[in-house]
Each structure stands twice: as structure tokens, then as C-alpha cells.
Write a structure and sequence with these properties.
By secondary structure, the protein is of the alpha/beta class. Helix 1 packs antiparallel against helix 2 and helix 5 packs across helix 9. It binds phosphoenolpyruvate (PEP) and magnesium ion.
């Protein structure tokens, strides 16, 4: 690269900026831009194609092709050379375009006269916006320098497109982020919600892509890299005792921050006339495009690290931190790439809905959303790229659909649906106090799952008989530091007060796996779901368990107390946990605290191994609760957080139901009270089948009690049991189709 090309490039960018600063309408600006580029690059043609919708590109301005074809010539993604550039996000540079694979002749443009073709994708951090093309009559091979110059221009065009510079009279192109978008994801939590977008991590907006003073911009860039480097070094120092994985990530950060190649490219971008932030974004966009193409997991991860690093740089350069100072709307729908349960709890009940670009149905964040009864869609497409803070949005959790900036018909339809759901809730309220007795006279008890103080008011409203699962770890997840024993005593005692004599089953801390306490050193485990979690942590580090058990005993203060140990895989673990409890009861008694009036102690059955424990375990254990979420993941060897494998296996799979039946039978022999508290207990059809195979106690999120009860009241469990037996006899893989047919015939 020569100084002349640098200054030419800067001159062009300056002229582009002047064109942008003019009062002209969007189309006139775009026309001027194509003229300036063709002039500066010495080409006969320069054209800008922008996306009309996800699949269609439109010629929006041209210098050199037939002007009448503007806004008429369109191509589908992948069609012709332009479509190929857009689809693959890759440059095409050819001296003989008609001979190129995929060339599509478009007679209306008159482009048959042009031989050479250079097409550059116009994209902005993962968002494909269009294609910038130059063409010449002669068989010119564009040099690396030409390509570079055009890439810089494409970056500026991308920023301008993003800022809406080409919108306006005659442009026939609607603004980005203004059209309605439908995104199809997966249901995380049913329910419909309307509100306004609140981005968990707002997008950084670059308003000044072009800069006059390369020296100053280079200084700004270097300062930002220095700030980043200092930050990373600090993090490294702090985590010297930390785990290997975290260190690796930080090392990668450091590697990029020190990377000469990365810096050099950005400095070159700046010498061509880009501002420091536009240079960072240009490299980030290109890394994103590469990320889409590489299949090597290691490389992808490194590129993702670079992406993360670029975001941090952009925040430093633009001063747009995670906190933009914007006010959260009163009806926020949270949009995030992913979110942990602790962060989600931080938002609490203020959210109307949640859409995650990644996320998974089995994650604890999803469980928190369910506990809070907030409609949730996971795998919500490109939502973080499409949505802007404050956009109108409707979430259809039942269908797993997200309507961003919905048009009037969608708004009306979904508002009708919301009204109908409110009516259904009224119907459920009318059966709230009725006992749950099936048509054939089987009596069931329905409990609710909870974990937050804020859940307790639902105990009355939902008609639950008690709290079948109180996930105590949620309280630990929302804090920045380990709660003190006295705080836990106060909290548990308030929970019991709020339960007004209804039973509450407290599950001792179930941490590990995806529930990582922010103040505990994370563990370097290759497979945390199968790792050091729940009771394993409790028994190995008894201090925390002791504190929690003492807090529970003190909180009960003469009232009945029910305690359940999570994730018991073999009988010895239960016995050991029980022994810790007994020791603490004795200690508390010696200290003069009031003893609970009654004490029930049970275990969660979450691993298949426990279903095959010796009979003595079933005789000894006070009660059992099936944690279907974990049990299912281990039974099918399918990660509950991995959408790809999770949905392959139906809870109503005959093998899984057989395992549950076996547990029911074994508990019947020893007369051990048994309940089911996994998420499936709250799904009416699943709950019906669980009841049909003998479960009499189900614990679910409060909002599910109405729908589950309503179905159980209308059902003959004996008949469903027969349907299940017939399906099994026929060799069906899942009983779902047969049960659904039967239900349809009933209605
Ligand atoms: C379960 O595994 O089914 C369960 C209720 O526990 P959690 O979802 O909290 O792991
Ligand atoms: Mg579990």
C-alpha cells in the first residue's frame, strides 16, 4: 500500500462524508456515492445493492448501468454474482464476469458490456446489508489495493445504511430496523406478551465512520487497546488462582490485544480514512463473516473471543458502556444472546417477556423464567441484531414466535389471544379451591415450585396445596456474596410465614452445573452437569450445608419442617446427608433453639441409579421426589441445555415412563410418599400420563396448576392407563400420539 493510495482513499471518504452531510434525500445521496466511487476508482460502473428483505437484493443506485433498472433489478440471495457475494459474505474479483460460475445476465441493466467485476459484501457485525460492486469494460484485475479501498468504502456504506442515511423520498427503501420481522424460535415458557425491547447488552452505534486525522485516530486506537490490555492483565492477576478455562479465555484476549496483525490492519483502515471505531468494527465484521464459514470448533471459539474483544473496544472508544443511561421501558421484553439464572433474577418480575438468541429450554435461566411466569422464547434467530431498544415487540411463547415491530393485523390477533388467555385464567380461578379428583375418583395433590420470596403470594392464587420444591439456591444466585446464616434464618422464616401453615419442602443447595454462584470460584470441569454439584458439594464442603440446615431449623422455630436433599445418586449419600442433619439438630437443641414440631426428610431422585437402590433405601427415606429434568437428561444421555439433543427424546417415551412406573411400584412397596417436581409435571398432557401411571403428587410452576387441574378433573385415569398400556403393547416409541388422539376424541 502506498501513501498515494492512502491519501486517495482518504479523499474519497471525505467526499463521501460531504455527500452524506448534504440535505439531499436518501436516493440522491446514494446516487452521488456511486458516482464518487466510480470516479475515484476509475471504473465505468459502481452499483449498490441493498437487501429488500431477508432473501432479496435490490439495485438501489448505480453509476454506469441503465438508470431505469434502479429499484427494478432484483435478485435472490445466492443468485448471480451479486447474490453469491451476499450469501457467502465473500469478495468476488474477476476480469471476466460472464465466464464466472453463477453469472446471471440481467439485460435490463445493460451490464453485458462490462467484463471485470469486483463485488464486496456490505455488512455490519454479522448483519448482511448488501453488496457494493464496481465493473469495467476492460478485463481488469482489481489489485489488492483496490479491494482494500473498496472494503473501507463498503464499511462506510454499511454504517450509513445502518444510520438510515439512504432513507427518504424516492429511495423506495425502507429503513433498517423499521420493518416488521417474524422470528421463529422454541418455546421456553408459554404465554403471550406485548411490550418494548430492552437489550441486555445494547448495540454500539458508530456515528462517525469517517475521520480526518489519522494520527489522532491511531492514538485513540492505541489508547483503547492499552486500556483493554490493562483491564485484561488485571483480570488475569485476579484469577491467578482461577480455573484453567477462564485463564485460557483471558490469554486469548491478551493474545489478540497484543496481536500485531490485528493492530496493523486497524491502523491501515485508519490511514485509509476510517475512524478508530469504524476500523475496529470493520475487522470485527470480517471476523464474524469468517466465523460463519469455519467449522473448526477451536477456531470458531477464538473468533468469538475476538468478537467479544471488539465489543469491549467499541465500548471503550464510543463511551457506550453496558449502561447507556437509557431508561428501561415500563413493559420491558428482555433481549439477550444468552443469560444466566443469576442475571435474570436480577431483573426480577419487571420483565414482560424474554427472547434469547441462544439459550435453552432446560437451562436454569428458563426455569427462572418459568418460575416467574414470564413468556420465554429461546433460539430466537437474529433477534439481538434486529432489535433496537424501545422497539415494539410481541412474544408468542406458545408458538415460540417473536413479532418484532409487528404490523396491525398481528397486533390485533395477539391481543385477542392475550385476552383469551386472561379468560382462561378466570376459568381456572373458578376451580382453584376444588379438590383434584379425576373422573374415576383418584385423588391427587398439586403443589407449586418456588425459590423466591416473590413466589409465595402465588400459593394462594394458584390453588397449590403447598410448595413441593423450594429451590433454595435461587436466593444464593441473586446475591453478590454468600448470605449469612442470620439472613437465611430471616428469609426461611418469612417463607414459612407466607405459606400460612401449608407445607414447604426446602431443597438444600443445588449448585454446580449451570448454577454457578458469582462469589464462588468456578470449577474447571469438563462436564459440569455430571460433575461436582448439589449434594456432592454439600457433603464435601459441609460448612455451607451445616449453615443452611441450622438456618432451616431455626426458621421453623417449632413449626413443621420438610427438607429434601438434591441429586442423590446412591443410598450412602442420603444416609451421610441425613447424619449431618441429625448432628445439627442435636447441636441446635443443645444451643437451646426450638425444635421443629415435625421433621420430614427426603431425597430427590434425579439419576437412574437411585431407582435401582436397595429396598432398604426406599424403606429408610422419608419421601422421594422425582427431579424429572435431570432424570430425563441422564436417562437419555441428552443434555437438558442442548436444544439439539434435548428435543429428540419425549418424556412420554415408553422407556422413560417404564422407569417412572418402576419407581412408583418400589415406593408403593415401602409406602414411601412420592412426588414429581420436574418441569413436565406442569405440562397438562405429561401430568395426565404421570397421574395415570400412579403418581399422586405433582409439583409445578404456579401458573400450570390451573391447566393441569382442569385436565385431570375431566379425565379418567384408568382409561389413560389403558391407552398407555396399549401403546406399549403395540411397540409405540412414545405414548403421546395415542394419548393425544384419545384426548381429541374426548373433546
Ligand atoms: C429436576 O432436575 O427435575 C429438578 C426439579 O431440579 P432442577 O431443575 O432445579 O435441577
Ligand atoms: Mg435437578
Amino acid at each position: 500500500m502506498t501513501d498515494t493510495s492512502d491519501s486517495n482513499s482518504r479523499k474519497l471518504l471525505r467526499r463521501l462524508r460531504d455527500a452524506m452531510a448534504s440535505d439531499e434525500a436518501g436516493q440522491a445521496r446514494l446516487d452521488k456515492i456511486t458516482h464518487l466511487i466510480a470516479d475515484s476508482m476509475g471504473t465505468e460502473v459502481c452499483s449498490v445493492y441493498l437487501f429488500r428483505d431477508d432473501e432479496t437484493l435490490e439495485l438501489c443506485a448505480t453509476e454506469g448501468l441503465d438508470p431505469d433498472s434502479v429499484h427494478k433489478t432484483r435478485m435472490r440471495l445466492g443468485e448471480g454474482l451479486v447474490g453469491r457475494v451476499a450469501k457467502a459474505g465473500k469478495i468476488i474479483n474477476t476480469p471476466n464476469a460472464p465466464a464466472e460460475k453463477g453469472f446471471r445476465f440481467m439485460p435490463e441493466t445493460g451490464e453485458e458490456r462490462f467484463s471485470s467485476f469486483l463485488g464486496i459484501p456490505v455488512q455490519r457485525v454479522g448483519e448482511k446489508l448488501g453488496v457494493l460492486v464496481v465493473q469495467s469494460r476492460d478485463a481488469r484485475v482489481y489489485s489488492a489495493d483496490d479491494i482494500y479501498a473498496l472494503e473501507v468504502v463498503a464499511m462506510v456504506v454499511a454504517e450509513m445504511t445502518e444510520l438510515g442515511a439512504f432513507i427518504g423520498e424516492g429511495a423506495a427503501l425502507s429503513a433498517l430496523h423499521q420493518q416488521s420481522v417474524l422470528l421463529r424460535g422454541t418455546t421456553g415458557q408459554e404465554g403471550t406478551a406485548e411490550g418494548h425491547v430492552w437489550l441486555h447488552e445494547p448495540r454500539v452505534v458508530v456515528t462517525n465512520p469517517i475521520a480526518d486525522d489519522p494520527e489522532r485516530e491511531t492514538e485513540r486506537l492505541k489508547d483503547a487497546v492499552e486500556q483493554l490490555r490493562v483491564g485484561v492483565d488485571k483480570m488475569l492477576e485476579m484469577s491467578l488462582t482461577g480455573d484453567k478455562e477462564q485463564l485460557q479465555v483471558l490469554e486469548t484476549y491478551r493474545m489478540f490485544a497484543n496481536s500485531k496483525g490485528w493492530m496493523r490492519r486497524m491502523e491501515e483502515d485508519i490511514s485509509r480514512g476510517l475512524s478508530a471505531e469504524a476500523a475496529v468494527e470493520k475487522e470485527q465484521s470480517q471476523a464474524r463473516a469468517r466465523m460463519e464459514q469455519v467449522s473448526d470448533a477451536y477456531l470458531r471459539e477464538r473468533l468469538a473471543d475476538l468478537d467479544d474483544l471488539s465489543n469491549r473496544m467499541l465500548r471503550i472508544l464510543t463511551g457506550q458502556g453496558a449502561d447507556t443511561g437509557a431508561d428501561m421501558p415500563t413493559d420491558p421484553i428482555l433481549i439477550a444472546r444468552n443469560i444466566g439464572p443469576g442475571e435474570l433474577l436480577g431483573y426480577g418480575r419487571s420483565l414482560r417477556g424474554i427472547v434469547l438468541e441462544e439459550g435453552s429450554v432446560g437451562s436454569h435461566a428458563a426455569i427462572v423464567a418459568r418460575a416467574l411466569a414470564i413468556p420465554l422464547v429461546v433460539h430466537g434467530g437474529r433477534i439481538t441484531t434486529e432489535a433496537l431498544n424501545g422497539d415494539h415487540i410481541m412474544v408468542d411463547g406458545d408458538q415460540g414466535m417473536v413479532h418484532l415491530r409487528p404490523d396491525d393485523t398481528v397486533v390485533t390477533a395477539l391481543r385477542d389471544k392475550i385476552a383469551m388467555q386472561a379468560k382462561a385464567q378466570e376459568r381456572y380461578a373458578s376451580i382453584r379451591d376444588a379438590p383434584t379428583v379425576s373422573l374415576d375418583g383418584q385423588v391427587l395433590s398439586l403443589h407449586m415450585n418456588a425459590g423466591l420470596m416473590a413466589d409465595l403470594p402465588s400459593l394462594e392464587g394458584s390453588g397449590a396445596e403447598g410448595v413441593g420444591l423450594f429451590r433454595t439456591e435461587l436466593q444464593f444466585l441473586v446475591r453478590n456474596q454468600m448470605p449469612k446464616r442470620s439472613e437465611l434464618v430471616a428469609l426461611y422464616s418469612r417463607v414459612l410465614d407466607a405459606a400460612k401453615g401449608k407445607a414447604v419442602v426446602f431443597r438444600t443447595l443445588d449448585i454446580g452445573s449451570d448454577k454457578v454462584l458469582p462469589y464462588m470460584k468456578p470449577n474447571d470441569e469438563p462436564n459440569p452437569a455430571l460433575g461436582w454439584r448439589a449434594i456432592r458439594v454439600g457433603l464435601d464442603k459441609p460448612g455451607m450445608m451445616r449453615m443452611q440446615l441450622q438456618a432451616l431449623i431455626r426458621a421453623a422455630n417449632g413449626r413443621p419442617l420438610s427438607i429434601m436433599f438434591p441429586f442423590i445418586a446412591q443410598s450412602e449419600e442420603y444416609r451421610a446427608a441425613h447424619a449431618v442433619l441429625e448432628k445439627n439438630i442435636a447441636l441446635e437443641e443443645r444451643l437451646g433453639h426450638r425444635m421443629p414440631s415435625s421433621l420430614e426428610v427426603g431425597a430427590m431422585l434425579e439419576t437412574p441409579s437411585l431407582a435401582f437402590a436397595p429396598q432398604k433405601f426406599f424403606d429408610d427415606v422419608g419421601f422421594l421426589s422425582i427431579g424429572g429434568n435431570d432424570l430425563k437428561q441422564f436417562f437419555f444421555a441428552a443434555d437438558r441445555e442442548n436444544e439439539r439433543v434435548r428435543r429428540r427424546y419425549d418424556t412420554l417415551n415408553v422407556s422413560f415412563l417404564s422407569l417412572i412406573e418402576r419407581i412408583v411400584e418400589r415406593c408403593a412397596v415401602s409406602e414411601t410418599p412420592l412426588s414429581f417436581c420436574g418441569e413436565d409435571a406442569g405440562r397438562p398432557v405429561e401430568a395426565l400420563c404421570l397421574a395415570a401411571i400412579g403418581l399422586r403428587s405433582l409439583s409445578m410452576r404456579p401458573a400450570s396448576i390451573g391447566p393441569v387441574k382442569s385436565l385431570l378433573l375431566r379425565s379418567d385415569l384408568g382409561a389413560v392407563r389403558k391407552i398407555i398400556a396399549d401403546a406399549r403393547h403395540r411397540g409405540d416409541q412414545s405414548v403421546r400420539p395415542a394419548v393425544m388422539d384419545w384426548l381429541r376424541a374426548q373433546s
